[in-house]
Design a protein that fits this description.
Blueprint (H helix, E strand, L loop, with lengths): L13 E8 L6 E8 L4 E5 L6 H9 L6 E6 L2 E2 L10 E4 L11 H11 L4 H14 L15 H13 L5 E5 L7 H18 L2 E6 L2 H7 L2 E6 L2 E6 L1 H6 L4 H6 L4 E11 L2 E6 L4 E5 L11 E6 L5 E3 L11 E10 L3 E8 L6 E7 L12 E5 L5 E5 L15
Parallel strand pairs: 3-8, 3-9, 6-7, 7-8
Antiparallel strand pairs: 1-2, 1-4, 4-5, 9-10, 11-12, 11-14, 12-13, 14-20, 15-19, 16-17, 16-19, 17-18
């Protein structure tokens, strides 16, 4: 696999350099990326920020205004879509309604004028692999939505592409069917060594599938890395918020030591957090401390009993979520801040009930500090607290 910005020892399957194009909210701006053989990349981002535009530009259906695209070292920036050899599955199945399943899946083989025996072999193998043999002679209108999506996937991989592009194809499915489809697709991509770019709006789906995640917003990559890197080590407040529920506590830097800072919150408490990787703000800088709800320790005790960097709060709401318990709390102090804490199901003690006063704390490396204003011009996303 090829880390972002590096070439590795051999040529990546896909290389983008300075790719730009489009207009308005769908404009792509200076995108660069390497994708290795068999690598699964989740292209994550809000609606209307360029995910589909990027996929269709790579596939050749939209022109690139600037930049270079290479597939296995071959320039494809100006190539016609049918000459790129890329599999594409759009959000709508886009099947031929007058053809049965076998004809739909076999269409790319016929276009490539593949030999009859080879066509038959590939078709049978792909139909069987995606569980479509029993409906091979059915028309799309006779199929369930999940079956139509499987037909679209089969048609996209039957000719053996090196690269497969997916535009959020599982969004219409119910959660159990979507989970099963994702697992099948991940297995097929590994078996056939297909590089995949899978566009989605769902961070959970992106993290469940991907070797790496590329978070796209405003036509730019905001961060590219492993799911753990984006979730645990976000490079901006926008990334932190988009990747999952996050407590965002405003304050001001009081002191800095090595890669961590002490922050005096507006609420009045003193906490610790890691500094940004890209720059070191000065003491006195207004900032936001971001910490995930599951990283916050909570005990039924006074804040002083947990140490100098603990916060005092009161539990407001307790919600049983099945696999975890979600606590919504009001912080003590002048700022009247709020926080969310998550604990595994079964770990909650009877003393942690609504109305209980508690102490809250976290390890410094579990919190990230971002200068105030670092999310300016970023799309609005839901946050746990502000």
């Amino acid at each position: 696999m090829f880390p972002f910005g590096e070439t590795g020892e051999s040529e990546p399957v896909l290389r983008l350099r300075g790719l730009a194009g489009g207009a308005g909210g769908e404009r792509l701006r200076d995108l660069s990326l390497d994708l290795g053989a068999g690598e699964y990349l989740s292209l994550l981002g809000p609606s209307g920020t360029g995910k589909t535009r990027l996929l269709l530009t790579i596939a050749g259906f939209f022109p690139a205004a600037a930049g270079v695209m290479l597939l296995d070292g071959r320039g494809i920036t100006r190539s016609a879509p049918h000459r790129r050899g890329i599999g594409l599955v759009l959000a709508g199945e886009a099947l031929f309604p007058h053809m049965d399943v076998a004809a739909n899946v076999g269409f790319p083989l016929a276009v490539r004028r593949m030999g009859r025996e080879e066509r038959r072999r590939r078709l049978a193998q792909t139909l069987d692999r995606l569980g479509l043999g029993a409906v091979a002679h059915a028309r799309p209108a006779q199929l369930s939505r999940a079956e139509r999506i499987r037909v679209g996937l089969a048609r996209a991989i039957v000719f053996g592409p090196r690269l497969l592009l997916l535009d959020d194809p599982f969004a219409p499915l119910d959660p159990p069917a979507a989970r099963q489809m994702r697992a099948n697709l991940r297995d097929i991509a590994r078996e056939r060594d297909i590089a995949v770019i899978h566009a989605t709006r769902d961070p959970a789906e992106a993290m469940a599938l991907a070797d790496r995640v590329a978070l796209l917003s405003g036509g730019r990559f905001r961060q590219v890395g492993t799911p753990a890197e984006l979730y645990d080590r976000p490079q901006s407040l926008f990334v932190a918020r988009f990747m999952g529920e996050t407590n965002c506590l405003p304050g001001r830097i009081e002191s800095i030591e090595d890669d961590a800072a002490e922050v005096r919150l507006e609420q009045g408490g003193l906490v610790e957090a890691l500094l940004p990787e890209t720059a070191t703000p000065a003491t006195g800088t207004a900032c936001v401390v971001a910490v995930r709800p599951e990283r916050v320790a909570m005990v039924a005790a006074a804040a002083g009993e947990m140490g100098g960097h603990a916060l005092a709060g009161r539990i407001g709401t307790v919600v049983e979520m099945g696999d975890h318990v979600r606590y919504e709390l009001a912080l003590a102090g002048a700022g009247a801040g709020r926080m969310v804490v998550r604990r595994p199901a079964g770990a909650s003690a009877g003393s942690l009930a609504a109305g209980r006063e508690v102490a809250l704390a976290w390890q410094p490396h579990h919190a990230r500090l971002f200068p105030s204003g670092s999310a300016v011009a970023e799309p609005a996303v839901a946050v746990a607290a502000s």
